[in-house]
Design goal:
- InterPro entries: OSBP_sf (IPR037239), Oxysterol-bd (IPR000648), Oxysterol-bd_CS (IPR018494), PH-like_dom_sf (IPR011993), PH_8 (IPR041680), PH_domain (IPR001849).
- This is Oxysterol-binding protein.
- One of its GO terms (biological process) is lipid metabolic process.
- One of its GO terms (molecular function) is cholesterol binding.
- Interacts with OSBPL9. Interacts with DIAPH1.
- By secondary structure, the protein is α+β, with helices and mostly antiparallel strands.
- It folds into 2 domains: about 130 residues, Roll (PH-domain like), CATH 2.30.29; about 325 residues, Beta Barrel (Porin).
- Helices cover about 25% and strands about 25% of the residues.
- It contains 9 helices and 25 strands.
- The strands form 6 sheets. Strands 10, 11, 12, 13, 14, 15, 16, 17, 18, 19, 20, 21 and 22 form a 13-stranded antiparallel beta sheet that branches.
- A hairpin with a 4-residue loop joins strand 21 and strand 22.
- The radius of gyration is 29 Å and the shape is globular.
């Protein structure tokens, strides 16, 4: 039961008419709100508030619906105009403040050049400018939403906001969102607590921890998937959709509650993206060949700093598929034994060498195996395990990804840790991962890494701190990284590094020697993966194959429908499990304390 309080400018709802004198169940501020018709149900209308919240109302008939639309829009307009008057008053007060400061004497205990007063003057001007810009955006969005649709038959069930007519950017194309190719599949962007992209569930439960082998590796073949994402940036009509999405988000909002448009997807699962951390397996395997603990920790830092650039397919920021609980990804690499040497004595790679030929004789190669699995979806936790039996080396990692809206950026925290074990030396290196940021999401989105990560080996007393520097607002370089390796018992710095994580890195050692690694010329070893026809139904590429196929064809509608079908199927399985009170049991990983561990790790094998 809805009540419109015109004077207060709020829309309230109650359980029923009898309870309208009690505390309302929900309240929506109408200043700057947009009222839109909807064909989702008969006589339905939707109210989008300026802060991103949304109410859906249903009238008894067409006449009542029109009455409510008229009243709601009048209320929104009235309070918007009141806000404009208030802004004029604030502007007048700010001018008086500036005049008072500038009228102060040029000398004495308090002058017009007092640092605090100058700061107050600048801050008040910036605040006023920001508030004015916000009000201007809201007024334009209300005006544009009220315009009749430019195209016949365009759906009204999506808010027709085309974004601000900014003086600094070219005006966006006119045309309603309902007419865009992917719009019909993305009408659930308003923040609905029960409609989350991550609300994915399981296939029928697999046999827990069945089979000690990861997969039949003899079936694996060199991967020939496209390396690059070809899109140049956000298309003009897609920008309208993203603007609509942004208009509903609040700063700091958890993006797991948002269904993102399909056209920003990367054509692969996040589980597969983690495998790209191993794209230079020769550097990883070389760690255990280091002669001393100092050399081994430095080798690990060298490997770590080169591990991120291959995970980005080109400069464009795109989002991998959110893995579904129970989803797995398997692959392996073969590394010629003559390529695995301690990095400080290894021969230089020829410039421009990107692909290294595989050794024909398996006995002349080390085999590195990789398995990843989505073990939870609330929170979304991915695990991956990688091992080389011959080198007695393995990595076990669990990562919880947490996305956050930051205005024109999206931040993704990688919560969790990994452990590199060198069994030959009895050493364990515990490491964390940086956060990732998608910047400039309305133009050409790009990725940068940020944050401080640590690498620690308790046995040897060596540790490293790696800082991924985000670009300053004005000037400054992008993709900067610095690192420092320390021997804690003696408080000695044994190595420093600086450069770009996707470019050139320079290392300086305690003996004064320096070395440069150019990540763009390092040999990339293609992963080996089984063909689709030999993959199980829950393996990443097989699971997402139809979504990927339609994205490759450019058919966004069909890709969205396939994705929706896949996720709905998972929800049904989740509800079944909830009804039976059967907890999900992962296939390859076991929970231990706060972390997850591979069920048959190298350190437990006899």
């Amino acid at each position: 039961y809805f009540v419109l309080d015109f004077e207060a400018g709020i829309l309230q709802y109650f359980v029923n008419e009898q309870s309208k004198h009690q505390k309302p169940r929900g309240v929506l501020s109408l200043s700057g709100a947009i009222v839109s018709l909807s064909d989702e149900a008969p006589h339905m209308l939707v109210v989008y508030s300026a802060n991103g919240e949304m109410f859906k109302l249903r009238a008894a008939d067409a006449k009542e619906k029109q009455f409510w639309v008229t009243q709601l829009r009048a209320c929104a307009k009235y309070h918007m105009e009141m806000n404009s008057k208030m802004m004029n008053q604030v502007e007048g007060q700010q001018k008086n403040l500036v005049h008072a400061i500038e009228s102060l004497p040029g000398s004495g205990p308090l002058t017009a050049l007092d640092q605090d007063l100058l700061l107050l003057k600048a801050t008040s001007a910036a605040t006023l400018s920001c508030l004015g810009e916000c009000l201007n955006l809201l007024q334009q969005s209300v005006h544009q939403a009220g315009q009749p649709s430019q195209k016949p038959g365009a759906s009204e069930n999506i808010l027709g906001w085309h974004g601000p007519k900014s003086h600094s950017t070219e005006q966006l194309k006119n045309g309603t969102l309902g007419s865009l190719p992917s719009a019909s599949a993305n009408i659930t962007w308003a923040i609905l607590p029960n409609s989350t992209e991550d609300e994915q569930t399981s296939q029928p439960e697999p046999e827990p921890n069945s089979g000690s082998e990861l997969v039949l590796s003899e079936d694996e073949k060199s991967d020939n998937e496209d390396k690059e994402e070809t899109e140049l940036g956000v298309m003009e009509d897609q920008r309208s959709i993203i603007l609509h999405l942004i208009s509903q988000l609040k700063l700091g909002m958890d993006l797991t509650k948002v269904v993102l448009p399909t056209f920003i997807l990367e054509k692969r699962s996040l589980l597969e993206m983690y495998a790209d951390f191993m794209a230079h397996p020769d550097l990883l395997l070389a760690i255990t060949a280091g002669a001393t603990p100092e050399e081994r920790v430095i080798c690990f830092v060298e490997y770590y700093l080169t591990a991120f650039h291959e995970g980005r397919k080109g400069a464009l920021a795109k989002k991998p598929y959110n893995p579904i609980i129970g989803e797995t990804f398997h692959c392996s690499w073969e590394v010629p034994k003559d390529r695995v040497k301690p990095k400080r004595t290894a021969p230089r790679s020829p410039a421009g060498c990107h692909e290294h030929p595989m050794a024909d004789d398996p006995s002349k190669s080390y085999k590195l195996r990789f398995v990843a699995e989505q073990v939870s979806h609330h929170p979304p936790i991915s695990c991956f395990y990688c091992e080389c039996k011959e080198k007695r080396l393995c990595v076990n990692t669990h990562v919880w990804t947490k996305s956050k809206f930051m205005g024109m950026s999206v931040g993704v925290s990688m919560i969790g840790e990994g452990v590199l074990r060198l069994l030959e030396h009895g050493e364990e290196y515990v490491f964390t991962l940086p956060s990732a940021y998608a910047r400039s999401i309305l133009t050409i989105p790009w990725v940068e890494l940020g944050g401080k990560v640590s690498i620690n080996c308790a046995k040897t007393g060596y540790s490293a701190t790696v800082i991924f520097h985000t670009k300053p607002f004005y000037g400054g370089k992008v993709h900067r990284v610095t690192a420092e390796v320390k021997h804690n018992p003696t408080n000695t710095i044994v190595c420093k590094a600086h450069g770009e994580w996707n470019g050139t890195l320079e290392f300086t050692y305690s003996n004064g020697e320096t070395k440069v690694i150019d990540t763009t010329t390092l040999p990339v070893y293609p992963k080996k993966i089984r063909p689709l026809e030999k993959q199980g139904p829950m393996e990443s590429r097989n699971l997402w194959r139809e979504v990927t196929r339609y994205l490759q064809l450019g058919d966004i509608d069909a890709a969205t429908e396939q994705k929706r079908h896949l996720e709905e199927k998972q929800r049904v399985e989740e509800r079944k499990r909830e009804n039976l009170r059967t907890p999900w049991k992962p296939k390859y990983f076991i929970q231990e304390g706060d972390g997850w561990v591979y069920f048959n790790p190298l350190w437990k094998a006899h």
